[in-house]
Amino acid sequence: LKLLEEDRSAEARAVRTRVQIEASRQASGAGDLKAAEKLLGDASAAAKAAGGGLADDWALAESEYLGWKGDYAASAAAAAPVTTRDATDPVGVLRQLRALDLEAEAAYYLGDLQRSLAGYGRAVEAAEAALGRWPNDSRLRWMLLRQQWNLGATLIEAGRPLEAETLLAQSLAGWEALAAADPSDGAVQSWVRAVRLSHGQALGEGGNCAAAIPELRLSVAERRRWLAERPEDADALCRLTDDPAITGAVDFLPAPFTLDDARDLIRGGRRCLPAQDEAARARDRSRAVLAAQEARAGPQRRKKRGVERIASQGAVHHHIPGRV
């Protein structure tokens, strides 16, 4: 931005506005809402004057900011106009899909589960149609897999695990294929862990315990391996979990949840877990992972935002213009 300040040309102004919009999105995702609000304000006049895609990008960044702020009704209203745009290229479709995602997410947090399901359903259909037109666009592939997870996870909460399992199996297969193609992509690995956990939950709630137990066991093993490679995260896990809202709800977690407990959970969980059969241990470890993820996301962001923040870091191929 500093490099562009002295250039007063229209081209520099457009670039500066795009940078401000993207910086606002990153600030929102990082929890710096004050910075996000200022960046949106700085970009507002130029974005609205330019119209078109730049104005829509600004509106979507505002929707994200309002969602992180907890003003879900305003977030949905900001995204709504973009959901009906006549998209003629992949970038336009991606904007539309982001808008549908934000609108459905806002409905979820407003407690309107049916509206949220309808929105995520529209997003899945739109992503599938777009991939039919542009089958080699990796950004659209990312978005389809993400929307399948959104819809599947919401179907679980709506008490429809069998429908959820089908969608989540498709999403998981897609993320695993991407992970196999590029094992170094940490964002993809984050999605694999998140979707596998949801898939295991759908299997279990659908009554298929024989399939759910190994899936959840694998999910916990992936999570533990990720933590074991980052021993410094034991302290973060301790801070995330040592809260009465978590230890009180998850009966096998000790209170207080100490640094030693966190390290033990990363190693294998023997101090934290009662002597139970292997299936019960897999279930309880999965609940521990969920509890930590929910704590990271915050009380108003339990469903998605923890995963979204992880997946957005370094994953520019599903950004617009450049978390997510």
Explained architecture:
This protein has 324 residues and is mainly alpha-helical. The protein is 75% helix and 0% strand. The chain has 16 helices and no strands. It has helices spanning 2-5, 10-29, 33-50, 52-69, 72-83, 90-109, 113-133, 138-157, 161-181, 186-205, 209-228, 233-241, 244-247, 259-267, 278-297, 305-312. Helix 8 (138-157) packs antiparallel against helix 9 and helix 12 (233-241) crosses helix 14 (259-267). The longest helix has 21 residues, at 113-133. The protein is globular. Mean pLDDT is 77; it is low at 245-252 and 268-324.
Present the secondary structure layout.
Elements: H1 2-5, H2 10-29, H3 33-50, H4 52-69, H5 72-83, H6 90-109, H7 113-133, H8 138-157, H9 161-181, H10 186-205, H11 209-228, H12 233-241, H13 244-247, H14 259-267, H15 278-297, H16 305-312
Helix pairs in contact: 2-3, 2-4, 3-4, 4-5, 4-6, 5-6, 6-7, 6-8, 7-8, 8-9, 8-10, 9-10, 10-11, 10-16, 11-15, 12-14
Keywords:
globular, mainly alpha, 324 residues
Task: Summarize model confidence as the mean pLDDT.
Answer: 77
Give the count of helical stretches.
16
How large, in whole angstroms, is the Cα Rg? 21 Å
Q: What is the first-to-last residue Cα distance?
A: 22 Å
> Can you tell me the overall shape?
globular
Instruction: Report the strand count.
Output: 0
Give the structural class: mainly alpha
Question: Could you write a compact summary of the structure shown?
Answer:
The chain is built from 16 helices and no strands.
